[in-house]
From TrEMBL:
The UniProt record lists the keyword NAD: no
Family of this protein: Belongs to the tetraspanin (TM4SF) family.
Signal peptide interval: none
Keyword terms of this UniProt record: Cell membrane, Endosome, Glycoprotein, Lipoprotein, Lysosome, Membrane, Palmitate, Protein transport, Secreted, Transmembrane, Transmembrane helix, Transport
Organism listed in the record: Crypturellus soui
Subunit structure: Interacts with TIMP1 and ITGB1 and recruits TIMP1 to ITGB1. Interacts with CD9. Identified in a complex with CD9 and ITGB3. Interacts with PMEL. Interacts with KDR/VEGFR2; identified in a complex with ITGB1 and KDR/VEGFR2 and is required to recruit KDR to ITGB1 complexes. Interacts with SYT7.
A Pfam family: Tetraspanin
Protein name per the record: Tetraspanin
Top-level lineage group: Eukaryota
Classification via PROSITE patterns: TM4_1 (PS00421)
InterPro entries the record matches: Tetraspanin/Peripherin (IPR018499), Tetraspanin_animals (IPR000301), Tetraspanin_CS (IPR018503), Tetraspanin_EC2_sf (IPR008952)
Topology with respect to the bilayer: Multi-pass membrane protein
Transmembrane segments: 32-53, 60-84, 181-206
Length: 216
C-alpha cells in the first residue's frame, strides 16, 4: 500500500505539473503529501514485519497503533476533501485567472499556461474570451497560439469556436479529475481495506504473543 501511494503521488505530480505551476506553487504539496504518507506507511510496515519476525509484543503494538492513526487521518482527509470540494474549485479558478493576467510578465508561467492549454485542449479560464482583457492581446482581437485547434498561421487572430478551443481550462481540469476519480476512489478503498486487515492481523498476533508469554 505504501508503494502504491508513492506511485500515485508521483503520477499526480507528473501529470498535473503544469497545472500546479499555473495555479499555485503550494498546490504541489498535495502529491508530495501523498508520497510522504506512502513512505511513512512503507517504513511502518517494515517495522511491523520486524516485530512479527522477532515476535516482539511492543513492536507489533506500535505498528498497530501507528497504522490505526494513519487510517484515521486518511478518513479525515477524505471527508475534508469532500466537504471543501467547492473551495478547491474556487482556488483553481482564481489561480488560473491570475496566471492568465500575468501571461506577458512571467516567461515560466507563460510556458506553463501554453502547455496546459495544449494538453487539455482549452483556452482561457472560463472560455477564450478571457484573453480579450489581457495584454498583449487586449484590443487586437487575438489569443495565444496555444489556443489554436487548427494548424494555421493566423489561427489565433479573430478567434472563434471554429479556430480555437472554446472550453476554458477550469472545465478541462475538472473533466480530467472526474475521469480519474473512480480509479482514485477504487485504489483508496483497496489501500484502506489492507490497512484495516493489517490492524486486525496485528491485534491477533499481539494476543498470540501475549498468550505465549503467559504460558511461559
Amino acid at each position: 500500500c505504501g508503494v502504491v501511494l508513492i506511485a500515485i503521488g508521483i503520477y499526480a505530480q507528473v501529470t498535473l505539473n503544469k497545472a500546479l505551476v499555473v495555479t499555485d506553487a503550494s498546490a504541489s504539496s498535495t502529491p508530495v503529501a501523498i508520497v510522504v504518507v506512502g513512505v511513512i506507511i512503507f517504513f511502518i510496515s517494515f517495522f511491523g514485519c520486524c516485530g512479527a519476525w522477532k515476535e516482539s509484543y511492543c513492536m507489533v503494538t506500535t505498528f498497530a497503533v501507528l497504522l490505526s492513526l494513519i487510517f484515521l487521518v486518511e478518513v479525515a482527509a477524505a471527508i475534508a476533501g469532500y466537504v471543501f470540494k467547492d473551495e478547491v474549485r474556487a482556488g483553481l479558478e482564481q489561480g488560473l485567472r491570475e496566471a492568465v493576467e500575468q501571461y506577458a510578465e512571467d516567461a515560466e508561467l507563460r510556458e506553463a499556461v501554453d502547455e496546459l492549454q495544449k494538453e487539455f485542449h482549452c483556452c482561457g479560464v472560463a472560455n477564450y474570451t478571457d484573453w480579450a482583457t489581457v495584454a498583449p492581446f487586449k484590443g487586437n482581437d487575438t489569443v495565444p497560439r496555444s489556443c489554436c485547434r487548427v494548424n494555421a498561421t493566423n489561427c489565433n487572430v479573430h478567434p472563434s469556436p471554429a479556430t480555437v478551443y472554446q472550453e476554458g481550462c477550469v472545465q478541462g481540469l475538472e473533466a480530467w479529475m472526474k475521469r480519474n476519480i473512480v480509479v482514485v476512489a477504487a485504489v483508496a478503498l483497496g489501500i484502506a481495506f489492507f490497512e484495516v486487515l493489517g490492524i486486525v492481523f496485528a491485534c491477533c498476533l499481539m494476543r498470540g504473543i501475549r498468550s505465549g508469554y503467559e504460558v511461559m
